[in-house]
Amino acid sequence: MYPNKFLISTSNNCQFLILDAMKLYPINAGNFKLDGGAMFGVVPKSLWQKTNPSDANNMIDIAARCLLIEDGNRLILIDTGMGNKQSDKFFGYYFLWGNDTIDNSLKAHGFHRDDITDVFMTHLHFDHCGGSIQWNKDQTGYEPAFKNASFWSNQNHWKWATEPNNREKASFLKENIQPMEASGQLKFTALPHHDLLKNSELGFDIFFANGHTDKQMLPMINYKGKTICFMADLLPTAGHIPIPFVMGYDTRPLLSLTEKEKFLNLAADHEYYLYLEHDAHNEIITVQHTEKGVRLKDTFRCDQIFN
After folding, report:
1. Each residue's pLDDT tens digit in the chain (307 positions)?
2. Which one of 170, 226, 247, 277 is least enclosed by Cβ atoms within 10 Å?
3. What pTM, to 2 d.p., does this model score?
4. Rounded to an integer, what distance in angstroms lies between the CA atom of residue 213 and that of residue 163?
């Protein structure tokens, strides 16, 4: 499969296949709501509501903004949202809103889920990997939702998710995880010596963070001279930029503080573009150093950076 290609001819009539440069596409897997207090931990509502206003039930808008990388003959999808196989009762806890789906978003860019060659999961919490698995045709069991794709995790996180602690057990759903292994499509990335894996098997660097969950993986993509960082749950929204603004969902919040401070300082130093998976209203941001620490610099729509 070469979705972007053209031929050039030389004076001696030799032809060469030239592949276009990498292309990136935002893939919106759906929107939902989460409790603002849980999303900001010990930070008072009087502070976090300035950037993330809540409704009457204290719920704030959350996105599942995945990312598709078209690179030569590979189509790599980063995260897959919640999916649609859970019960109405389950989804009732998350107040789904909007009409975005993976299929509609892929179609808008000229793709189908069967075109996907790789599904890279930042981690295995249900709102990041649930769309990787679907009901089978007879509704009697589960099967991969991307039948031609490899599913990428890492060995340490896989063990963490399949032998869950009591804190995270409700986020690691067996029906999202076990069918990946049973399908034979599961693969593991290498692990770094410290926190950065250079030149991974997927063609991008990966920053590993352990505060939210063990061995969460953040892709760092070299794109047209820019570094695009898929922030997953290290930085859920632009409102989480101040270092103490850490989610109540994080298993090791003090470690999250250290990891976030390190990464945001690097982002400010090197002008990284931070792709926000969960911010329903800000797609890509940059940050800068200020007297108060790292703070928001600019916001961008995806089409401003990707086109």
Report:
1. 444 444 444 445 555 444 558 999 999 999 999 999 999 999 999 999 999 999 999 999 999 999 999 999 999 999 999 999 999 999 999 999 999 999 999 999 999 999 999 999 999 999 999 999 999 999 999 999 999 999 999 999 999 999 999 999 999 999 999 999 999 999 999 999 999 999 999 999 999 999 999 999 999 999 999 999 999 999 999 999 999 999 999 999 999 999 999 999 999 999 999 999 999 999 999 999 999 999 999 999 999 999 8
2. 170
3. 0.93
4. 13
What tokens does 275 get?
């792709």
Token pair in block for residue 164? 């869950």
Which pair of tokens denotes residue 93?
Answer: 């806890």
